[in-house]
Amino acid sequence: MDHLDQLEAQSIYIFREAFARLKKIALLWSLGKDSNVMIWLARKAFFGRLPFPALHVDTGKKFPEMYRFRDHYGKEWGLDLRVEPCPPIDAVDPTLPPAARSAARKTEGLKMALGKYGFDGLIAGIRRDEEATRAKERVFSPRGLEGNWDVRDQPPEFWDHFNASPPQGAHLRIHPILHWTEADIWAYTKRENIPIIPLYLAKDGQRYRSLGDQDITNPVASTASTIDEILIELEQTKVPERAGRALDHETEDAFERLRVAGYL
Amino acid sequence: MNMIVTPASPATPNSTNSMPNGTTRPQVRIVIVGHVDHGKSTLVGRLLHETGSLPDGKLEMLKAVSARRGMPFEWSFLLDALQTERDQGITIDTTQIRFRTNSRDIVLIDAPGHAEFLRNMITGASQADGAVLIIDALEGVRDQTRRHGYLLHLLGVKQVAIVVNKMDRVDFSADRFKAISDEISAHLQGLGVKPTAVIPISARDGDGVAERTDRIGWYRGPTVVEALDRLEPARPLEALALRLPVQAIYKFDDRRIVAGRIESGSLNAGDEIVIMPAGKIAKIKSVESWPATPVAGPQGAGRSVGITLDRELFVERGDIIAHAGSAPRETRRLRARIFWLHDKPLAKGDQLLVRCGPKESRATVVAIEKAVDPGELSSVENKAIGRNHVGEIDISLSNPIATDPYTDNPRTGRLVIEVSGRIAGGGLVLSVDAGQRAVPVDIVPVESALRPDERSARYQHNGAVVWLTGLPASGKSTLAKALERRLFTNDGSPILLDGDTLRAGLNSDLGFSAADRSENIRRLAEVATHLARNGHIAIVAAVSPAREDRAAARRIADTNFREIHVATPAGVCEERDPKGHYKKARAGALASFTGIGNDYERPEAAELVIDTSTRTVAEAADEIEQMLKTTGVLFDEVVDLAANI
Description:
heterodimer; A: alpha/beta; 6-stranded mixed beta sheet; two-stranded antiparallel sheet; 8 strands; 10% strand; B: 6-stranded antiparallel beta barrel; disordered N terminus; disordered C terminus
């Protein structure tokens, strides 16, 4: 087994545990490279199917290429796609800095979707190497009744035994690719020939390393126009993956505040 | 953290951990543990710097933040990513950071040292291939140093490098270093862990981290970076016997796929397998996958697979698939060495949920031995296992499970314990009691040709287990015989199971230790339950002093169980003494005799309590009959009919 085989086997194991131990789960599909890999892994775990809904919490501000991708592959992959809207910006905590406040709409949209369907588990494609607070996550991560994350009181998790009993009315976040890196995602995308949104590939000296809402995501300078070139670029860069995400850079603790409140 | 790190030279891009020459760089996961304030975070910060692993501008940014806050820069700030950490001045959780040495990709799990956060240390260390145990040269070996050392051993982390930090505070004294080195090496070797290196360093100044400086010129061993470079990745598990714990059975289409991850060994289509604990035999028809399926060739440890079988068998989540001839043991009882993380200490009689891989079973703690605080120098043994302490426990399981001692299989020989839906502890399976199946068998339970209602129509009662418990000579056997006669007179079908009588045959291999007593009760309960399910009223007369053993019997018999406490006062029992046991025990000639000590645990919720010193045998039998009537065992009509004659 090579490195990618090991990552894949571990993710499949997590998917099957989530499906066996929780009652009603959904996969959060952000349309980005990570969640596309995640859908692929789920189909490996369940022999070609996604036996639960794919939830797209839509801010309405994604790139047109992302919506086209969603509509096309949602059908081709046979997904039970649920598109859920986010509330207007006025409904969001006004003390947050502008970009974080904009991103927090997604947290609210997520809460509304949770209330609507009553999911007890949400599968999310976050990775430990993306960002410091995500590094502190568990694979099965309990959320409070308000969807909040208590980083100071996380249950122990070892030997692939996960805490799968959320309190009544609360839910779990399940992170099947927590142990992957950005480079792993690209190497696996290439090996498995998983479709991607072309915005990730360089055009006119720029590409997107991470895709979010149009107004708060910026491209980075790059000449990597193929996945192979992206992998070489990643070997050499010291620029963090989320450098193009405005909300990460507003204040020292903006991202942590978002996550404690239930952001991904 | 955003710390994917640059290699010295660009690597080929076809795999994330391939080297320029195309070979695979081994990835090892390490954890840094040790007493709070002994310098873990500082060492991590320094390691990232020394290996050229910091993102551009990170160091400058943190230096600026420190200046703004009016604090001197500390290497540990690199890790203190959360606001809360900076506020408390301690690292609170596990983060994972990657960097590279000459020949290894290192994933560094920064485990914290604050005692409150031991569960995070365990979460981190359980994923590690190797560990660095850090000790302050000034403070020396402390309670958490010892505790972490013990937990590394329990978690199965075998490669441990010791780092003696803050050598600058002891003037780089070789004598001080040797004293600490000797003490910790002796402690670890007592646990069966041999340190791979003991290294004197100053994480703050850099001595010994990547460089052997003049100040530690007397030291001849590896630097920290060199020691990390020598770590071996996790041991391959393919050489061990096949263990495929079943996660789920999927029927998405006309295939019935048994899915799970191969924990050890390997499998292939055509293999003869045995499904434990039931011991059913089948052949692997195919190995299914996606997008291409089926797949050919052997599948080894670590793979998540799906297989189909050549016959329709009942397989469920938690079963273990093994090769015939090397199957795991089936058991209802095991001994484990565990660490405990829950606020409430673990005590004898506690009810738990035990998980062995995907298998879960309700369980009861039958005995606790060697409960100690691994941080203490001299271990004081306790009756219960306190928070952050360790111990050895005997567990009785309500469902049989298939497992291995951890010395046979490190993957399947471990378990976790849940309390109220939350992981509260975990540990290693030391031994598995009884129930070993020498030869796998094709078990197909044969059902009776008679329906329960046919029997109850004849006997005018439902099946039941009437369990008489009480001190020796309290009158259990006398009552049992009276009840048997009365039910038989009414055309019922009572069967007497006397504890002493069964000890002469079925249970002749059992003595009077706590474990043997439990097994004695389990067998009585199993036989009685079988009779009850077939419509008979099994009357069990047994001292059965342990509340937990009776609770186990009730779990086996379930709704058929009726407990009667024959609560004759102890003085009266001793006076009666028909078998002369009390007399012998008083003379010290009868060990393990229940009655004269305080070892009889009274039932708390028996269906009926009878004191035979205050009523006749007939009156007592009336009361039992009435109870069986009100609890739906005896049909009312019989009693009414009898009254009308």
